[in-house]
Amino acid sequence: MVEDEGSVRVDSWIWSVRLAKTRSAAAAACKAGHVRVNGERAKPAQALKPGDEVRVRVEGWERVVVVTKLIRKRVGADVAAQCLVDNSPPRPAREFVAAPGARDRGAGRPTKRDRREMDGLRGR
Question: Which pTM does this prediction carry?
Fold first, then answer.
């Protein structure tokens, strides 16, 4: 279902072009501030038009796409690829992604100080 006129909700479009696994995940990303349309933070019901730039933060990686066609329903991957232009930077190599902090086996429960240090490493 490819549309040429009108507008489509941001969360619906993100789900339709397979940038999010579910529509509720797309709406949650919008509410959390992980979606920007033309540089502005987007609400789930914001309308999209062809030519809009959409930035979606997925798993610590930012996808930058330009809307070429509006679509309301989820379609096959080949059709979804025709509805956007992907300008995303390349994904960082796995070696450069920080590994989650691990404690030594048998070290016991972390203290408050340990938890604060782990949160600091995770960027919280």
Answer: 0.71
